[in-house]
Structures are given as structure tokens and as C-alpha cells.
UniProtKB/TrEMBL annotation:
One of its GO terms (biological process) is DNA repair. This is Alpha-ketoglutarate-dependent dioxygenase AlkB. Keywords: Dioxygenase, DNA damage, DNA repair, Iron, Metal-binding, Oxidoreductase. 2-oxoglutarate binds at residues 125-127, 209-215. Signal peptide: none annotated. Its EC number is 1.14.11.33. It comes from Oxalicibacterium faecigallinarum. PANTHER family: ALKYLATED DNA REPAIR PROTEIN ALKB-RELATED, NUCLEIC ACID DIOXYGENASE ALKBH1. The lineage of its organism: Bacteria, Pseudomonadati, Pseudomonadota, Betaproteobacteria, Burkholderiales.
Length: 218
């Protein structure tokens, strides 16, 4: 754990960072400065591309509702998982990635040592109380040298983070409003999950958690 000073265009910035695993960091509260703009941008995206519950290749409907913005969106159906430039619900391209999303993802990745990260996909997850995301790897992306950047907004969740094997030991960390997690390098293919959300309420989101996950898909 360390409280580090970083030089940015705006001057000196203090970022509270925790090591989650090898090449994986939690930047505590890093998104707080942009919280209102970020949530307004989520509202803009979901007007064009509403949240929906995707079906897994195995036929299960996911409890977490999802949508995307950016050139590519992550989708799942009976045919499999993939990235697609077209939203299958609307038949239109995904909404553009808001500049505030892009800048936050690039800056967070750079702080974690991934200087040339330019995401082309942002998956937006909406967790209601009781919903969870089961253990998985993010491995539908072409270049695993590029990290994953994940932004948590709204009510807290417990994030589970393990190793490259499903059965590797896992640690549990709380993620709260404004936290940003970056994982890449040796942790890029780490299994991770979100445990069932406990009842809670946040002044800006109500009883919901929103997660933005930035990827370089192609
Ligand atoms: C994900 O693994 O896609 C989302 C992680 C999270 O919601 O924190
Ligand atoms: Fe994931």
C-alpha cells in the first residue's frame, strides 16, 4: 500500500494506491473528481443503448445488466462471447465513448504503468442488490499485453481476485464508489468475480452499483 505523488498536467496529484496482485493496482477514489460527469455520461449512453440481461452460451440469463459504449461492445448469446461494433438490441453502432471515460481509463492505466492504453470498448455493468458476476477471465480481447481498467460507482461490492487458474487462491477486496482497478501483465488473465451485492444505498445511484470496464478488444 502506498500514498504516492504523481505529476500531472494539473500539477501534483495524490493517489492512494493498493497492490492487488502482480501488475494489478487499486487506485482508491481515483474517479471521484469526475463522479457526476461519469454518471451523466452513463445516462446518455443508456438512452441510446439500454441495459439488458445477456444470455450465456450455456443458456443462463446473467443477473447483471449490461450495455456498452465505444467502437466495440462485448456481447454474449447462445453462439458465444464476442466483441461487436453493432448493438444487437438496437441494430445500431454502440454510442461513442464519452471523452471523460476515455481520459479516465487512459490516465488510470498510465498510473499503473500501461502508457499506451487506448481502449476501444467500454462494458457498462449494472448490479442490483443480490446480483453477482461469477468467476471468469477476461480473455475475449486480442492483445493481452493491454490491461483492463475497471471503475466502480455507486454501492460497494466485494471483488474477488485470484490467479491464472480457476482454483488458485483468491483475495477479497471491497470496491467502493470512485475506486479504479487496473490489471495487466502477469495478472491480465487472472480469474475474478463480484460477490452478491449486499443491500445498500448511494446518494448518486440509489441501490445500484455501476461498473465501467475498459478494454482494448482488437
Ligand atoms: C468484470 O469483471 O467485467 C466487472 C468487474 C466489476 O464489476 O468490478
Ligand atoms: Fe471481468
Amino acid at each position: 500500500m502506498s500514498n504516492d505523488l504523481f505529476e500531472t498536467d494539473e500539477g501534483i496529484e495524490r493517489v492512494w494506491q493498493e497492490v492487488l496482485a502482480e501488475d494489478a493496482l487499486i487506485l482508491r477514489g481515483y474517479a471521484l473528481a469526475e463522479q457526476h460527469v461519469l454518471l451523466r455520461a452513463v445516462d446518455d449512453v443508456i438512452r441510446e443503448a439500454p441495459f439488458r440481461h445477456l444470455v450465456t452460451p450455456g443458456g443462463f440469463t446473467m443477473s447483471v445488466a449490461m450495455t456498452n459504449c465505444g467502437p466495440l461492445g462485448w456481447v454474449s448469446d447462445r453462439r458465444g462471447y464476442r466483441y461487436d461494433a453493432i448493438d444487437p438490441t438496437t441494430g445500431k453502432p454502440w454510442p461513442a465513448m464519452p471523452p471523460v471515460f476515455l481520459n479516465l481509463a487512459k490516465e488510470a492505466a498510465a498510473l499503473a504503468g500501461f502508457d499506451d492504453f487506448v481502449p476501444d470498448a467500454c462494458l457498462i455493468n449494472r448490479y442490483e442488490v443480490g446480483t453477482r458476476l461469477s468467476l471468469h477471465q477476461d480473455r475475449d480481447e486480442a492483445d493481452t499485453n493491454q490491461p483492463i481498467v475497471s471503475v466502480s460507482l455507486g454501492i460497494p461490492a466485494i471483488f474477488q481476485f485470484g490467479g491464472n487458474q480457476r482454483t488458485d487462491p483468491k483475495i477479497r477486496v471491497p470496491l467502493t464508489h470512485g475506486d479504479v482497478v487496473v490489471w495487466g501483465g502477469r495478472s491480465r488473465l487472472a480469474y475474478h468475480a463480484v460477490l452478491p451485492l449486499k443491500a445498500n444505498s448511494h446518494p448518486l445511484t440509489g441501490s445500484v452499483r455501476i461498473n465501467l470496464t475498459f478494454r482494448k478488444a482488437r
